[in-house]
Specification:
Keywords: Transferase. With about 325 residues, the chain is of the alpha/beta class. It has helices at about 35-45, 55-65, 85-90, 90-95, 115-120, 170-185, 195-205, 220-235; strands spanning about 1-5, 25-30, 30, 50-55, 70-75, 100-105, 105-110, 120-130, 135-140, 145-150, 160-170, 210, 215-220, 240, 250, 255, 260-265, 265-270, 270-275, 280, 285, 290, 295, 300, 305, 310-315, 320, 325-330. It has two domains: about 1-220, Spore Coat Polysaccharide Biosynthesis Protein SpsA, Chain A (Alpha-Beta Complex); about 220-330, Hexapeptide repeat proteins (UDP N-Acetylglucosamine Acyltransferase, domain 1). The strands form seven sheets. The protein has a seven-stranded mixed β-sheet. The protein has a six-stranded parallel β-sheet with strand order 14-16-19-22-25-27, covered by helices on one side. The protein has a five-stranded parallel β-sheet with strand order 17-20-23-26-28, with no helix packed on it.
């Protein structure tokens, strides 16, 4: 089985951070979003990955080569963003006849990877949500199989949202249905949707089961990213290496502090993730994500997202600051 991870999106909802960093490389709870996905699938037994890249794709390539030397990887360029269906179709030659597992590059979920892989059926990850209108939706039949999937329905007939995890056993069938979308120019909200191709498969006899994810962490915008960071830190307990010595500083767990940080006369936590080589003095930071090589001096941060190589001096409350930024409060 090969894993396909589309990471070509521009991440507009996470700007200004995604002006300089792909969304999949945004840090959360001490790791990148992409690391959570790849590590989880690799631990479940998948060793070959196809990354669909586009915007800032060279950063994805550099990161994968550095962070995952133990996997086999391929890169496919998506120069035009025409939707998830278009992205997956670009992988046809690399996939061949192998089964595939598609995990969208901004989706962190908790589920049993091995159980999903070993299932004799194609499977779609689902989670019950209060308002499914902004998601793909799965409708279940009485026989326990999925009988219909639809992308962002105006009037949903189910509250089972598709979470962006797809195991496909009949890959040739899937690529044939994708080809049908292109030939007939069938689009949803102006894009070729993988959900539409899967629905064509179901209508033509393919069998899909649903597997429920235990937790689904939304990393698509600042507020939900910070909420997911807090939840994941609670689950992991955080990580502060033994080599750290923080003079005059109180650490309120859970927090994650990367190597080579200097923190002095500050209060850090709870639910704070700090990147490597960051310097913090005379500051209070809680419920926030701070990038690498960043300097904070005399600031009070709450529910803030600070990029890498940024500098903030003065007093503040809640910030959303991208990379390579300098702010001084008078």
């Amino acid at each position: 089985m090969k894993a396909i991870i589309p990471v070509a999106g521009a991440g507009a909802k996470l700007r200004p951070h995604t002006y300089t960093q792909p969304k999949a490389l945004i840090p959360i709870a001490g790791k990148t979003i992409l690391s959570f996905i790849v590590d989880q699938l690799h631990e479940g037994g998948i060793t070959e990955f196809i990354f669909i890249i586009g915007y800032l794709g060279e950063k994805i390539q550099d990161y994968v080569k550095f962070a995952f030397p133990h996997i086999t990887y391929h890169f496919v360029q998506q120069t035009e963003r025409w939707g998830t269906g278009h992205a997956i179709e670009l992988t046809r030659e690399i996939v061949g006849d192998d089964e595939v597992f598609v995990a969208l590059g901004d989706t962190i979920c908790e589920y049993d990877v091995k159980e999903m892989i070993n299932s004799p059926y194609s499977m779609l990850g689902v989670k019950k949500v209060d308002d499914p209108r902004n998601f793909g939706v799965a409708e279940m039949g009485l026989d326990g199989f999925i009988e219909h999937v639809v992308e962002k329905p105006t009037i949903p007939k189910s509250n089972l949202a598709l979470v962006g995890l797809y195991k496909i056993k009949e890959t040739a069938f899937m690529y044939g249905c994708l080809k049908h979308l292109f030939e007939e120019n069938i689009k949803t909200q102006g894009e070729y949707s993988l959900t539409d191709a899967l629905d064509f498969m179901i209508k033509r006899g393919a069998k899909f089961k649903a597997f429920k994810v235990k937790n689904w962490f939304d990393c698509g915008k600042k507020d939900t990213l910070l909420e997911s960071n807090a939840t994941l830190l609670k689950k992991s307990g955080g990580n502060v290496t033994d080599s750290h010595t923080f003079k005059g500083t109180i650490i309120i767990p859970p927090v994650s502090i990367a190597p080579n940080c200097s923190i002095k006369d500050s209060i850090i936590g709870p639910h704070v993730a700090i990147g490597a080589n960051t310097k913090i003095e005379q500051s209070i930071v809680r419920e926030s994500i701070i990038g690498s090589y960043t300097n904070l001096f005399e600031v009070v941060l709450d529910n803030s997202l600070i990029g890498s190589d940024a500098s903030v001096k003065g007093l503040s409350r809640s910030l959303n600051i991208g990379d390579n930024t300098e702010i001084e409060f008078g």
